[in-house]
Amino acid sequence: MFPYYKFLFQRANYPENWDGLRKAVYRRDRWQCQKCGIKNTQLHAHHQTPLSIGGSNDTSNLITLCKNCHIDSHPHMWLKRWKESNPQAVLALRIVTLSTVISLLIIFGFSWWKIIALIIIFQYLF
């Protein structure tokens, strides 16, 4: 998969020492989610006051959350969790989308070589 999101969503507001900051927050919070209390799972450093509304990267503004609690606090991440937990549904959706697009291209008179070229180009965006 082509990582187009890396170019669209730059993390310019994160300092160079971000890894050190988040690990310091994990240590302070005893490597435990501060919302549900789970340990021994993937952890995220969460900004209590978002950077977009004036929050800082200071450790006093950061808390440790597990992956699920972090996603719960960010509605824009819900689709990502759904995709990770439903790979068969995602595959089915891709197949239906691709077959619909191919049908429309045929209806509108695209030649086969153009359709195949478009499939090869756009497969990396999914």
Order of adjacent strands in the largest pleated sheet: 1-2
Overall morphology:
elongated
Number of domains: 2
- Beta-sheet strand percentage? 5-15%
Percent range of helical residues = 40-55%
Mean pLDDT: 83
Task: State the order of secondary-structure elements, H for helix, E for strand.
Answer: HHEEHHHH
Rg for CA atoms: 21 Å
Largest pleated sheet: 2 strands, antiparallel
Number of helices: 6
In angstroms, what separates the terminal alpha carbons?
7 Å
User: Number of DSSP strands?
Assistant: 2
Briefly note the structural class of the backbone: mainly alpha
Low-confidence stretches: 1-10
Describe this structure in words.
The structure is a single chain. With 126 residues, the chain is mainly α. It has two domains: 5-80, no CATH class; 86-125. The protein is 48% helix and 8% strand. The protein has six helices and two strands; from the N terminus they run ααββαααα. It has helices at 5-8, 18-28, 67-72, 78-85, 87-107, 112-122; strands at residues 43-47, 62-66. The protein has a two-stranded antiparallel sheet. It is elongated and about 60 Å long. The model is unreliable at 1-10 (pLDDT under 50).
Would you summarize the structure shown here?
This protein is mainly alpha-helical and 126 residues long. The chain is 48% helix and 8% strand. It has helices spanning 5-8, 18-28, 67-72, 78-85, 87-107, 112-122, and strands at 43-47, 62-66.
